[in-house]
C-alpha cells in the first residue's frame, strides 16, 4: 500500500474542497427524520448530483464520475470536513447501489442507479422482521410467483428512512417450503403500490426515524428481482459487506468527531477530570487506525479482492469508537451535556447528546456486535459454533 497521494488525487481533493465550500448549505438542515428535513436533504442530494458528486466511484452514465475508491475516501474526508449534510439516501447509494452494480442486469442499472444518484428515489432497507433480526435467515415474508409478477405478503420492521422513502429493498421467501438461507429472493418494492402500508416508528428523540412496512398482496413485476430467484441470501451478503465493512461508515466521519472532541477538550481542559485527556488522545488514535485500516481494505479491493468476514471487525470497531467518543464528550460537558439540541442554553452542546443517542444504536444496526463476534469466532478464528 502506497500512502502518498498522486498529483491527480491532490487536485481532486482541491476541486472537491472548492466545490463544497461554494455549495454546502450555510445553515444546518432540519433532521431528515422530519418531512421538511427529508425534502431539504433530498434537495441537497440533487445539488450534489448536479455537481457530479452523488457517488464519485460510480460510472459517469449512472451519476458518478468514474473515480476509484481511494478518490471516494478523499471525497468523504472533504465532505465531513466541510460539515456537509447527512446523506438521506445512504441505504440506496452506499448499500443497494454497489449491490446493483454487482448483481443487476444492464436494464436494472440504467433504470435504478441514475434516479438513486439524484435521490429522485430514496431507498429503505427491508430486511428485519418481528422474528428475523439477528436471525435473519428466519425471514417469513413471502413473494410468490404469479406469471410475470411476485405477490408479496408479510411485514418488515425497523426500516430506517422508511417513513418517507420511495422504495424498499428486501428479501422474501419465494419458495414457501424452504428453510433458513435457502429459497430467499432479493426484490425491489415501490412503496406506493396498492397493498403497502407504512407505519412510522419514533426513535429515542421522538422523530419517526423508522417504519414498519406491511405488505398485503402487493404485486411487483419479476424484473424487480435482483439476482437469481432463491439466491437472495448471497446477494444480501454483498450488501451487508458494504454496510459493515466500507461504505456506510467511512473513516472521515470518525476523524471529524475526534477533531471535534479535541476542540471540546481544549475548551474545557482546565476543569477536565483526570484521565480524560488520555481518553481523548486514545480516541483520536483509534480514528486514525480505522482510517489506515480502511485505506488497506481499499488497496486490496482495488487489487481485485472482495470484502469478506473482516467487515465484522470493522463494524465492531467503528460502532464502539463512536459510542466512546460521545460518552467522553458528555463526560467533559458534565450536566450541560444532557440538554437537548433545542434547549435555550444548548449552543453546540446539544449535537453531542444527539450524536450520543444515535451512537447507542451503533452496536445494534447493521447486525449486532454480538452477532459480529460470533462471525469472527467462527469464520476468522475457526472456533466451533456456540
Ligand atoms: C438505528 C437502527 C437502524 C436500523 N435500520 C434498519 C433498516 O434500515 N432495515 C432493517 O431491516 N433493519 C434495521 N434495523 C434493525 C436491526 O438490523 C436489528 O435491530 C438487528 O439486526 C437486531 O435484531 P433485533 O432487533 O430483532 O434483535 P434480536 O435479534 O432479538 O437480538 C436481541 C439481542 O440478542 C442478541 N442475540 C441474538 N441472537 C444472538 C446469538 N445467536 N448470539 C449472541 N447474541 C445474540 C443480539 O445481539 C441482541 O443483543 C435497525 C436498527 C437500528 C437500531
List the helices and strands and how they pair.
Blueprint: H1 7-23, H2 35-50, H3 69-81, H4 90-103, H5 106-117, E1 123-126, E2 142-146, E3 149-156, E4 167-173, E5 184-190, E6 196-201, E7 210-221, E8 225-226, H6 232-245, H7 251-268, H8 276-302, H9 311-333, H10 349-359, H11 369-380
Parallel strand pairs: 1-4
Antiparallel strand pairs: 2-3, 3-7, 4-5, 5-8, 6-7
Helix pairs in contact: 1-3, 3-7, 4-5, 4-6, 6-9, 7-8, 7-9, 8-9, 9-10, 9-11
Any key phrases for this structure?
386 residues; alpha+beta; four-stranded mixed sheet; four-stranded antiparallel sheet; 46% helix; 13% strand; binds flavin-adenine dinucleotide
Written account of the structure:
This protein is α+β, with helices and mostly antiparallel strands and 386 residues long. The chain has eleven helices and eight strands. The chain has helices at residues 7-23, 35-50, 69-81, 90-103, 106-117, 232-245, 251-268, 276-302, 311-333, 349-359, 369-380, and strands at residues 123-126, 142-146, 149-156, 167-173, 184-190, 196-201, 210-221, 225-226. The strands form two sheets. Strands 1-4-5-8 form a four-stranded mixed β-sheet. A four-stranded antiparallel β-sheet has the order 2-3-7-6, with no helix packed on it. A hairpin with a 2-residue loop joins β2 and β3 (149-156). The protein is globular. The relative contact order is 0.09. The model has no long low-confidence stretch (mean pLDDT 94). Bound molecules: flavin-adenine dinucleotide.
